[in-house]
Structures are given as C-alpha cells and as structure tokens.
Design brief:
Shape: globular
Radius of gyration: 20 Å
CATH superfamily of the largest domain: Glycogen Phosphorylase B
Largest sheet: 7 strands, parallel
Distance between the termini: 36 Å
Order of helices and strands: EHEHEHEHEHEHEHHEEHEHEHEHEEHH
Structural class: alpha/beta
Strand content: 15-25%
Oligomer: single chain
Strand order of the largest sheet: 3-2-1-4-5-6-7
CATH topology of the largest domain: Rossmann fold
C-alpha cells in the first residue's frame, strides 16, 4: 500500500512548537509520508527563524513560501494571506499530497485551507472548536468549515465543532500536541542550560538564578492601534517591580510594529536592567524556562494551554485569549499597571499550582498520526444541522 502523503504547513514560530510531536509521529508512522512546508514568519530572522530550529531537529523542509508583506497592518495581513494562497496553491499542485494539515488559528492559516480545499485536497484542521478574541476567532471557525478532518484538543472544542454541523466520525479529540512537550518537561523539569549563554538575546545580564518571571505579549489584531500603549503599560509594571525578567519578542500580527517600537523606545528612556529580551528558543527550552519561572505574564496561548499542564502561575492581560478554557492558575486583568503588578505579586506569593489537563494527556502526536493514517479521505461533505 502506498503511504499517505501528509503535507503540514507551518507558518509561524509558535505553530512549530504546537505540532512538533505530531510531525515526528507522522514522520515515523509506517503508513505516512511527511511533507513539511514552511511559510510566513517562520522563515524570517526578525521573528526567530523557526526554519533553523526545525531543520536542526531533523525535519526535511520540502517547500519554503516567502509571503510576508511588511507593514504589520490589517491591510498587510490581508495581502500576506492572499500571496500565501497563490504560493501554497502551486506548492500543493507540485507535491500532490493526500491530506493537507492546517494549524489552529493564526490569520494566515486560512490560506492553507483555501488553497487545499479549492484543489479538492482533503484538509485536516488541528485545534478547531476553541474560542478566543481578535481575528483568530473568525479564522479558526472558517478553517473548521473548510476542513474535512477535525483534530481537536478538548471535549469542549469537539462539542462546539459538532454544533457547527460537522460529522461525528470526522471530529477526533486527540488533545494538543504541545502538551506532549509539556509532559516531557513535567517529567524532567530542571533548567539544564543558561538562557543568556545559549541564546544571547539583548539586554543586560540579569541575576536570574534566584528567581525570575517571563513575559510574552503580542498585539491584538482588533486593537492594533493601541498595541504600543498596551506594551508600554506592561513594561512600566515590570520595570517598577524590578524582578529579573526574560521577555520574548512579539509575533508578526497587525500592531507588532507598535509593540516593537514601544519596547525599543522604552529601552532608550529607561535602564531596563532587570529585563533581557529574546526572539526565540527551541520549544523544550522555552517550556523549561517557564516551568522554572515564578510567573508568566502577557497574552500568549502558552499561558492558557501549556501553563495549565505545567501548573505555572499566569497573568493574562487583555482580550486576546477571551473565551478560552482556563486553569485555576490564570489571573485575568486589563491594561492597568496596578492590576498587572498586583496579579504578579499575588501569584509569586502563591507559588506554582497543580497541573490541569484541559488540552490533552500529552500523547496527542501519536493520536494525530494514527487518525491521519486511518480516517476516511474525502474533500466534500454533507452537513446535517
């Protein structure tokens, strides 16, 4: 029997961490052939260039799609997605996959879904059925309706996809593959590297070994005009607390120019001696970093998903993760400096929490590969509402 060719499109740095174990399981499966395509910000140095990490992990990249349009505005996002549709259409025509896999909810992932669906290629969608704020909400559900195979991360998500009219047999709760990495870290949590030595980054050499916090805050696409104001509020709170901090650069979204400029201008006006900035880390290193931190601050989905598995205290700022299932370890707050500071202090006083397995048991990669090897392949569907 010929192997099924599974084409997975990774478009951004965090998307790779989210599917790394699924990629490995597909690669190792006797009935599957992995076709890995990289696109978007995953190829850009300014956003951490995930391509280097991916290739160092032993994956062969069969196509690279350069489609990012500079500007980080809603118009640039729309045009970036349009370019991706054209380029991915050509890639799929050349690769002739049996299944295309699109990941989660980033704005550009809709390009993968359109390019596959319009060419009658069965489409699998990972992590559909969840609820959040900004453009991700629309993109995720649009991906769901274009997809034929739904590999969801929770029972709550599965029920929501079923309510959208999708066939019961095609909606499979595999859990989230990023929980697989979290399980590995939970079993071996020691921070066995020096982040400053291994990754360099920018900023002064902070005294992190006696305790530190981590910040990862992205612009909100529906509030992109306020991205600079939002990041400055968080910077002021962290600066005043004067706790050693590892701070990660934002994703490429509408408003990321404002976020980046806010950080640069703040560094020019203040001596941020307690903050060190990074673009990227390999997924396991990043999870070990937050596992050993006092608290994670910002609006990344890592604070909602992996941190629940790891029991990490999280201060979730603003609306970006609105509606997502949360662990008890999450404190939500608005863009108010005093609220952010109070939430951080409350978490530090509390310490770590018990693990909550909201998004899977840590074996999602194997489940995804098995589902892709065994499920019925079709590119049309009859929906019963």
């Amino acid at each position: 029997m010929n192997k099924r060719k599974i084409c997975v499109v990774v478009t951004a740095r965090p998307s790779y961490a989210r599917v790394k174990t699924a990629l490995q399981a597909i690669k190792n499966h006797p009935d599957l052939e992995l076709q890995l395509v990289l696109a978007g910000s995953a190829l850009l140095d300014r956003y951490g260039n995930a391509a280097k990490v991916i290739e160092n992990d032993g994956f062969e990249v069969v196509e690279k799609i350069y489609n990012i349009l500079e500007g980080e505005t809603p118009t640039a996002m729309a045009k970036t997605t349009g370019i991706a549709i054209m380029e991915l259409s050509t890639a799929f025509n050349n690769l002739k996959p049996d299944v295309v896999v699109t990941i989660a909810d980033r704005f550009e992932t809709i390009a993968t879904s359109i390019a596959a669906s319009y060419q009658n290629i069965p489409l699998a969608h990972i992590q559909g059925g969840e609820v959040t704020g900004n453009i991700d909400e629309k993109v995720r559900h649009a991906n769901t309706k274009l997809a034929d195979i739904h590999l969801v991360a929770s029972d709550d998500a599965r029920n929501r996809v079923l309510k959208m009219g999708e066939m019961d047999s095609m909606v499979i709760n595999t859990g989230c593959p990023s929980m697989d990495l979290a399980r590995e870290v939970l079993n071996k949590p020691d921070l066995d590297f020096n982040p400053l030595v291994k990754y360099g980054g920018v900023g002064e050499e902070i005294a992190w070994k006696d305790g530190y916090i981590v910040v990862m805050q992205h612009p909100v696409t529906t509030e992109f005009d306020n991205s600079r104001e939002h990041i400055v509020t968080t910077l002021e709170a962290i600066h005043e607390l004067n706790i050693p901090t590892f701070w990660f650069w934002p994703n490429v979204d509408a408003g990321s120019d404002g976020t980046s400029k806010g950080i640069r201008v703040f560094r020019e006006k203040h001596r941020t001696s307690n903050i060190h900035f990074f673009k990227n880390m390999v997924p396991q290193d990043f999870l070990r970093l937050i596992k050993n931190s006092k608290c994670l601050i910002g609006n990344s989905s890592v604070g909602i998903r992996e941190s629940a598995f790891l029991g990490i205290p999280v201060v979730n700022i603003g609306t970006r993760q609105h509606g997502r299932q949360r662990a008890h370890s999450v404190i939500d707050c608005n863009y108010e400096k005093s609220d952010i500071k109070n939430a951080i202090n409350e978490h530090i006083e509390h310490g770590h929490y018990d693990s909550e397995f909201i998004y899977g048991d840590g074996y999602a990669g194997e489940k995804i590969a098995n589902a892709l090897a065994s499920c019925e392949l079709k590119f049309h569907k009859t929906i019963t509402y």
